[in-house]
Amino acid sequence: MQGKSKKGIIVSPRIRTIIVEKIEKMSQKLRRNALRRLIAALALPAALLSGCHAKGGVQGKTSAAEAQRRAAEAAEYRAAQEEAARIAAALDDRQLAAQVIISGIDGRGQLGADMRLLLSECPAGGIMLFRYNLDAGNAAIQNLIAESSALIAEGSIAVLPPTDGTKPTVSILPFAATDHEGGSVNRFRQGVADLPPAASYWEAAQDVGHENAVAQIGADSFSAGTAIAALGINLNFAPVAESLNAANADFLDDRSYGPDPDFVSKAAAACIVGMERAGVLCAAKHFPGSAGADPHRYPSVLSGGRDDLAELASPFAALIQDGRARAIMVSHSFAPARDSENIASLSPQIMDGWLRQELKFTGLIICDDFSMAAAETAASGNARPETLAVRSLAAGADMVLVWPPDLRRTHRAIIAALDGGTLSRERLREAAQRIIFEKLRMGLVLGESTNERE
Predict the structure, then answer these.
(1) Which of 254, 339, 368, 406 is catalytic?
(2) 332 is catalytic
(3) Residue 99 placed within a domain
(4) pTM score, whole prediction
(5) Any catalytic annotation for residue 286?
């Protein structure tokens, strides 16, 4: 028997029970297995589906078994894309507007009443956890994520078009995200999931060689990823895929894997693979690059021509070409050689033109929160975070980050933009489809079928 929530969303008690049990009891092994089923298909958009290897070139001779495996991976990839499109089409405007938001949450161990109300109104596509959430015991962190995820999943229930006499019902769990780069950017208590700073691997590479240093990154990232996945974290805003230079050194410091773009791309790839093996999706950052000023407090400007910007962004290009980048965080930097009017996070020329069209990126584009000074200054007086978030989505972003005080305003602004025509439903469904595709392969979409006659 099914009931209805106050918002009119169909809520099955059985689904609610499954949600809580799945979140609380899902083991690391299950998470890894869910990823492994599609991990080989990560390079498919750029490689297999075009008949080429991930690094380019015409496909050489392969054994019958290899050809069969690749065909199966291609079929699985297409099936997941079709399922993601079907689910996105079933979401109403309230759910669509929520799915593209990653929100910070208030709470340590459990949500407060106000935060529960916020997540009930806006079942965000992701939650973002900071030190004030994570400075707690493991059980408290797990409970906070489980409580948030169950509440969001209940508001993300969608009934798909009937097939074979059944009504497929799905519920979408959120990404549970944090910044875990290692070194100084570590939101956890000491000893929970320690990682050395990225720069230390470049230093080690001078002694043990690049290959051994990269192998160590993969091992360390898998170990840290396993630890944070056990807590419920499934999205990491890392690694920094920017090579160090004189212009960005003051801001990046030891967060970069060093000055060699080739080593940076290989190091970032190793971090991504290690984290993904543990069940954690990575968002490489900050495309196309950072300037020396801290964008939290100052405007960020990338000088130089298009060739200079291409060199700056070359590690990202390599990650995309090799099929490793499934999510990229775009910076609030101003890159006038690419767009003379908008910062990267508000620029169709950079997000759609450069990332999508030129570099052939098919994954998630995520933009940092718009309350940063670099974003507010660039907005020229129209600097409300919710307004900038809508502009970013219209320009090509798939997900935007918000603080809890901005969650309700951003959610309502997206819905108003849909109603007013300044943000198209096609654009929002496109973003939701990409989000849901990643969640499908990560096991973050729950489903059940009910007979139509019941």
Answers:
(1) 368
(2) no
(3) yes
(4) 0.86
(5) no
